[in-house]
Amino acid sequence: MDxxxxxxxxxxxxxxxxxxxxxxxxxxxxTLIGRLLYDSKSLFEDQLDALxxxxxxxxxxxVNLANLTDGLRAEREQGITIDVAYRYLATPKRKFIIADxxxxxxxxxxxxxxxxxANLAVILIDARKGVxxxxxxxxxxxxxxxxxxxxxxxxxxxxxxxxxxxxxxxCDDYEKFSSRLDxxxxxxxxxxxxxxxxxxxLSPKMPWYKGPSFLxxxxxxxxxxxxxxxxxxxxxxxVIRPRSDEYHDFRAFSGQMACGVxxxxxxxxxLPAGKRSRIKEILxxxxxxxxxxxxxxxxxxxxxxxxxxxGDVLVHPDHIPYVSNEIEAMVCWMHEMPLLSGRKYFLKHxxxxxxxxxxxVIFRTDINDLTENYDVPSLSLNEIGKVKIKxxxxxxxxxxxxxxxxxxxxxxxxxxxxxxAAGMICEPANNIPMPQYDGYxx
Amino acid sequence: MEHxxxxxxxxxxxxxxxxxxxxxxxFQQPVLLFSGGKDSLVMLRIAEKAFRPAKLPFPVMHIDTGxxxxxxxxxxxxxxxxIGEQLIVRTVEDAIQxxxxxxxxxxxxxxxxxxxxxxxxxIEEFKFDAAFGGGRRDEEKARAKERIFSFRDEFGQWxxxxxxxxxxxxxxxxTFEGENIRVFPISNWTExxxxxxxxxxxxEIPSIYFAHExxxxxxxxxxxxxxxxxxxxxxEMVQKKTVRFRTIGDMVCTGAIESTCSTVADxxxxxxxxxxxxxxxxxxxxxxxxxxxDRKKEGYF
Lengths: 442, 301
Ligand SMILES: Nc1nc2c(ncn2[C@@H]2O[C@H](COP(=O)(O)OP(=O)(O)O)[C@@H](O)[C@H]2O)c(=O)[nH]1
What we know:
heterodimer, A: alpha+beta, Elongation Factor Tu (Ef-tu), domain 3, eight-stranded antiparallel β-sheet, 8 helices, 23 strands, disordered N terminus, B: alpha/beta, Rossmann fold, 2 domains, six-stranded mixed β-sheet, globular, disordered C terminus, binds guanosine-5'-diphosphate
């Protein structure tokens, strides 16, 4: 692959794909990413130099591709990746952001972090070991975090003589398990990361495999339709008010389209207050746009002088979200200090931070076998469960499965300011009443 | 649905705008750190996209090593004036005189390290609680794990082991009195993205990014510029070469490369074909593999 093509093919066409990688220690995750960077020429010479240096220092002779992706010194010393590291890769067709996360159970929170923005989960399996507990755990996290696509990389095929039967039985096992998950699209690829089989090019050692190479899969995966374009949601982030002579009465609401599409002339409802207006103009610096779709950052001007400020959400009156200060959500606990029912937290959702208290832990999910344990008082670091939360301010939200941005939140400890949990809002159980805005005049 | 496709540059831009607005909304006293280099130029452009037609809700500040290229300083002043924003300059020189920063005996040593104490003292002086920096995760291994909202303790230090998890696009910007954060709005951009953006936005950049003739000498595998602060050693021969700079920093340690690029498009082609990463051209990163990590712990941005 020639990197200058990146330019020639035009920068406007190229799309961004974010994927997270998960694997148990020694499945070959670092090797796979290193291989991808190496073979796609995304590595630089001095990185290679540095690589060779660290290799000789530690007395290994072979170029260790895994070293490319291990970051901080402490981690190098321990010989494992313990945080989320981001890598960048460009091919003539796409730009990639890789969230590289560790696989141990004690790093569940890192996996959750890496998965939160991913379009695709890359899960590695050692062909000799097949589907193991960690594979199931990673898959569950990918499913919980709403990653729409998953690719199962059956690695180290060289160690099982590139045997189709081994591969097929692993795929069967996984198929059975994954029917319990919420992932729409699953792909399987047999490979050897170490030797580069089926990574960039298809390998002659596995003629029975008819699918794409790993890189060509990454380049062609269809991701546009994964986003929600049907429910317009515009959380107001910052009000632009120049107060200059030239822009005397100018007021625009800026923010990022969380989901859906807004067009000039569309009716809008500002929630939670319920005031109604219409879109007069959509601005992007000095350009006036006809429409804005997720995830664009724009500024919106309304026909009427209604009172809108940071934290409010502009929606379309025909597609109304939930408005409530009680929610049920799946949360992943991310802090050493366990969840305490009754303790005060801050809940940050969209552009609003509200005081919140956890009323109840409904159940804890055993992330190895996916069973639900009721009667648990709390959640500890790296545990996942369903909770009931009450907030001081009203939240304007959707089910996380419907819209990732309006359905997600973080919990912040009031005393330490640490981020203690990541949450995904569930469909309200007892059918909370839809907000009623009579004729939308309030 | 196909027409709702956003290019990678627009996606990155949108993410960066969102980050800047979050900081403006949640912090009392933000500041944008600006060097005149390409990354800080992109940040400034994004700030304009986030807040125009209003003025930026924060000042722009340059921590000047005193060893800057004169072309860059002029460019900086002209640009800030033309967009009508406020520029604060704090110099390493001043910090040395006040005893905040201490220069090492060897005059040829880079002053990049002295930027840290100078920055910290400026942060204290203005009570800044958030500082935008142009760092990118593709620059260096340690950066690859740094958060977009990156916390500094009272001593301005970064603790890589104790970072807040960062999920979706929800940023936790809660700080206590005396704490502050560095914010990296272009964390997810690569060097190539930055250049493509400069090209697309038709942005002006300092002339030293383009090929020009310069008196240089060879040291540590790179061409260094002769000048007031930088003398060749006895065995180092000064030559006239056609060179350009890939990064803009301290004259003492920023190496030039031989190049004939005269436009941004040329630069993009050159970068795409390049096999030496950008920081390879900075002498002060070469001390050790973990140089950046060490410096960041000292409060370097
Ligand atoms: N035979 C073989 N070994 C592999 C393959 N991929 C990785 N390895 C080796 O497996 C070990 C662990 O790989 P590494 O990438 O560090 O795993 P990680 O812990 O998942 O990042 C290393 O010694 C690799 O060289 C493969 O496809 N075939």
